[in-house]
Amino acid sequence: MRSDSRSKVGVMGRPVKPLISRSSTIAASIEIIDTEGMDAFSLPRVAKHLNVSTSSLYHHFADRRELMTEVAKEIMTEAIVPDLPSGTHWVEWFVDLSLNYRDAILCHPNAALVLVQFLPRDILTNTYERCARILDDAGVPAPLHVVILDGLEKLSLATTLTELMRDPVGSSEIFPNVDPRRHPTLTRALADNRWSSRELFVVTIRGFLAGVMSGTTTTMTDASLRDFIGS
Q: What is the pTM of this model?
């Protein structure tokens, strides 16, 4: 009796199960970027890593940009949105959330610039909604919600990228190449600093939130908002 080869092979001799998937391609892309850097990344390099032809990738992604967008999404979804235990102040929740985004980016330092170029904001829309609800429940004036959400995203990304851009990466120097003779005031400031990079990040986030909230009232009118932003 002859076995039915169709159980293993599809039409035109193609395997019934695809050799690659979107998820495996995204994972391979992140692995290449993490281990070899962005300069090594290309669709042919990903295809070689997966042991398939480059044309196979186009069954799942229209082009390099679409793949990079999915890579950016995958990295950011690694950031855990913390729970809000009863009695926790909203500022503490936002500090924890910002730290989680920072840690997710630091886990993929070579891919950090991918987030700047390719991360679509719609991937975080549900998180923004949850953030807005927490601000609303805490009595934060509605005109400040977007200021806080937009500012925290930009601040978290910018400060983390700045940390990654230090040469060499991982250096504990906050400001490199400081000469005590030419930069005496900055040298003293660095000597007096007792905060690690992570602690400085927390201080920056707290400072931003404190600054936004300073002088606000539960009811913020258009006039008071204009006074607040100085316009």
A: 0.77
